[in-house]
Design goal:
The protein is built from 3 helices and 8 strands. It is an alpha/beta fold and about 150 residues long. Strands 1-4-3-2 form a 4-stranded mixed β-sheet, covered by helices on one side. Strands 5-8-7-6 form a 4-stranded mixed β-sheet, covered by helices on one side.
C-alpha cells in the first residue's frame, strides 16, 4: 500500500488593494463564503474564501503606519486562476444575474471557458468539460444544444 500523498490542494493567495471591494466581488458577486478570517483593528486583513471545494485567500497588505502595500507593477498582471466546475455555462448565467460582466463563454481545449477580472486585475476563469467543437462561442443556438 502506498502512503497517502503529502500534497492535498493548492490555494491561490492574492494581495489586494481594497479588502472591502474584493469581498464584494468574491462574496456578493461570485458566491464565495468567508471560511476563515483575521481581523486587525476592526478590519478584515486576511481571509480564506470557499465555494464548494474551491478556495482562495485574500490579504490586505499593510506596512508600518497603516499604509497599504503597493507592488512595483499592477496587481494581477499575468495571474490567472482556473476554477474547474461541473457547468461553466450555468456559472456564466449566474454571474450575469449578479450584475457582473463575465466574458462570453467559448470552447478551448475541450472546455467551456468564461472569465472575469477582479478589482485588482486578477483573472478568474471558470471551465467545464464539453464535447462541443473547439472555438465555439456561446449563443442561443449553442444553448439549445448544450442543455
Amino acid at each position: 500500500m502506498s502512503p497517502e500523498p503529502n500534497l492535498r490542494h493548492a490555494v491561490p493567495f492574492f494581495a489586494v488593494s481594497n479588502m472591502d471591494n474584493s469581498l464584494r466581488f468574491y462574496v456578493d458577486g461570485l458566491g464565495f463564503e468567508i471560511a476563515d478570517k483575521w481581523i486587525h483593528e476592526g478590519t478584515v486583513r486576511w481571509c480564506r474564501l470557499q465555494r464548494g471545494r474551491a478556495a482562495l485567500m485574500l490579504q490586505d497588505f499593510r506596512r508600518d503606519g497603516g499604509n497599504t502595500w503597493s507592488p512595483a507593477g499592477p496587481l494581477g498582471l499575468g495571474v490567472s486562476i482556473m476554477f474547474i466546475c461541473n457547468d461553466a455555462l450555468s456559472i456564466y448565467r449566474e454571474f450575469l444575474t449578479q450584475g457582473l460582466t463575465p466574458s462570453l463563454p467559448f470552447v478551448g481545449n475541450g472546455m467551456w471557458v468564461t472569465a472575469l477580472r477582479d478589482p485588482d486585475g486578477y483573472r478568474v476563469e471558470f471551465e467545464s468539460e464539453t464535447d462541443v467543437a473547439e472555438d465555439t462561442t456561446f449563443d442561443d443556438k449553442v444553448a439549445d444544444v448544450t442543455e
